[in-house]
UniProtKB/TrEMBL annotation:
Subcellular location field: Cytoplasm
Keyword Cytoplasm set for record: yes
SUPFAM superfamilies associated with the record: AhpD-like
Gene Ontology molecular function, alphabetical: L-leucine binding; oxidoreductase activity, acting on peroxide as acceptor
Protein name: Sestrin homolog
InterPro entries in alphabetical order: AhpD-like (IPR029032), Sestrin (IPR006730)
């Protein structure tokens, strides 16, 4: 497992970076209409507002300030995890990600705790949304909206709606699924299945899309599949990290305070309210049942267990491995998640069909669907090359992202240094995939039960399967001894493990279709 960047912790003073940007094209009229932007309202804090500002500032040739680091505890966490020397790396990633109005979006900001990951994530996301690919740009953003809506992720829906319009998307489509072309609508079935019960996807779903009038090319299908799984899993991250309940953008001024730089003049700040995401109280009404009935296993105990597990040399039969997997799988099905899914907000309901189609425990799947054995169809041996062949080099990008996530470590845990966290991280990853019926034959699922306690299991299961039920408070309630950046780290693992699980089912269906 690789180790993070070491070296002495050194605080770099964040600097103003000037980015040379070509003036963007004039804002489309629909965008002005949709955002309700009225000339004279000071600095609207939406992506659309940012765009309008960018347009204004670029045409006035004003430089854009392009750095931001924020989030309480950032410095403490980064220092502890010995990352401050990579502050320059974060800074340059933020420069790339920065909206021209001095803001970075909350996802980028949160992922900034883990710059290595952020880099890989951004490369992939840029490529699938804006790079070479068979699907038109407006389709890509609309597919992202459809995917995010399966989990009622207002944060992602809003961002993608704005990007959709910026790409010249038809405003009518934003009225809902009844207003989109049949071709796009045809994708909805796959969207639904992949989001909640990916094991049900088979070659007939691909066949349906690729046959008949106005059908999809195989390359288009693959592009769409990648977008769908990316945004389903991103919704898990957004809810798991509490982003859906937070502000959408971070301004450099806020970041400035975190870095203890000179405060901005008061008057400027007063004119620049950061738009908070509206919380209409849906979440607050719903009782949260993640609180553990038993006390959390502390970090010291966890470390002891990790040590014992890495040292043991027990001979376990293949049959016993299988039984242990099934045990964890059926235990997962018994986990009481407590909360209800929140009522669907009226402003997103038109992007959702069949809302009752949700996750069912793989152990209770009814029809006999066999467990997905990674050895029979693995990402490394099968998925990666199939994907690469059908959609440019996206397999390489995803592979890099999976590997970066799986190997991400600072050898720390809840304030302790020099800890080998390999077994813990693997347990999280495999537990996520276990809920989708994916079994790694050479893994002892007994380790999951030793290392992932009940409350964390409930959190992971909710984040994977019902992310819309999570609130920021849920994230605060579990992993209490972990640093904030470590909780984000866990959420990154959930994102990637879930995405890989969905992708494996999608690729298996494609493989059956093409052979
Ligand atoms: C999720 C965390 C406990 C990971 C840990 N901080 C590490 O460096 O590996």
């Amino acid at each position: 497992m690789s180790v993070s960047v070491g070296g002495p912790a050194r605080v770099r003073r964040a600097t103003r970076c000037v980015t040379a940007q070509p003036p963007p094209r004039a804002p489309p009229a629909e965008l002005l209409a949709v955002t309700g932007y009225i000339r004279g309202i000071p600095r609207p804090r939406t992506a659309a507002g940012c765009f309008l500002e960018a347009w204004g500032s670029a045409t006035r040739r004003q430089p854009a300030v392009a750095w931001s680091l924020s989030g309480p505890g950032y410095r403490r966490d980064a220092m502890f995890q010995q990352q401050l020397p990579v502050e320059a790396q974060i800074e340059s990633l933020f420069i790339d990600s920065c909206l021209p109005s001095n803001c970075v979006d909350a996802v980028t900001n949160t992922m900034g705790y883990h710059p290595k990951y952020l880099e890989s994530y951004r490369t992939t996301q840029n490529f699938i949304l804006r790079g070479d690919g068979p699907l038109p740009l407006d389709y890509r953003h609309y597919i992202a909206i459809m995917a995010a809506a399966r989990h009622q992720c207002s944060y992602l829906i809003d961002m993608q709606k704005q990007e959709f319009l910026l790409q010249g998307g038809n405003q009518m489509w934003l009225r809902g699924l009844n207003h989109i072309p049949q071709k796009l609508h045809d994708l909805y079935e796959i969207n639904k299945i992949l989001a909640h019960r990916p094991w049900l996807l088979n070659k007939s779903h691909i066949e349906k899309l690729t046959k008949g009038q106005d059908s999809w090319s195989l390359a288009e299908v693959v592009h769409a599949l990648v977008l769908l799984v990316h945004f389903h899993a991103l919704a898990s991250f957004v809810f798991g990290s509490g982003i859906n309940d937070e502000q959408k953008y971070y301004e450099c001024d806020d970041a400035r305070e975190v870095l203890h730089l000179a405060p901005p003049p008061r008057s400027t700040k007063a004119q620049q309210p950061v738009q908070k995401l509206e919380n209409k109280g849906y979440k607050e009404e719903i009782p949260i049942a993640l609180s553990p009935t038993e006390p959390e296993v502390g970090v010291d105990m966890l470390m002891e267990r990790m040590k014992t597990l890495s040292e043991r040399s027990e001979e376990v039969s293949a049959e016993e491995y299988r039984k242990r997997f099934e045990h964890v799988e059926s235990q997962s099905a018994e986990l009481p998640l407590g909360q209800r899914t929140p009522p669907i907000k009226p402003d997103i309901s038109h992007f959702i069909e069949d809302p009752k189609f949700t996750y069912v425990d793989f152990a209770h799947r009814g029809v006999q669907v066999p467990t997905f054995r990674v050895q029979d169809c693995s990402w490394e041996d099968h998925g990666f090359s199939l994907l690469n062949g059908l959609y440019n080099d996206v397999g390489i990008l995803l592979d890099d992202k999976f590997k970066t996530t799986a190997s991400l470590t600072y050898n720390t845990m809840g304030g302790r240094r020099d800890v080998d966290t390999t077994v813990f991280r693997r347990a999280i990853w495999n537990y996520c995939q276990c809920m989708y019926g994916i079994r790694h034959d050479d893994y002892d699922y007994g380790e999951v039960n030793q290392l992932v306690e009940r409350s964390l299991k409930a959190f992971i299961k909710t984040a994977c399967c019902f992310p819309e039920r999570l609130t920021k408070r849920d994230c605060d309630k579990v992993m209490k001894e972990f640093l904030h950046s470590e909780k984000i780290h866990v959420n990154l693992m959930i994102l990637e493990a879930r995405m890989q699980a969905e992708l494996m089912y999608a690729l298996r269906a494609l493989m059956h279709y093409t052979t």
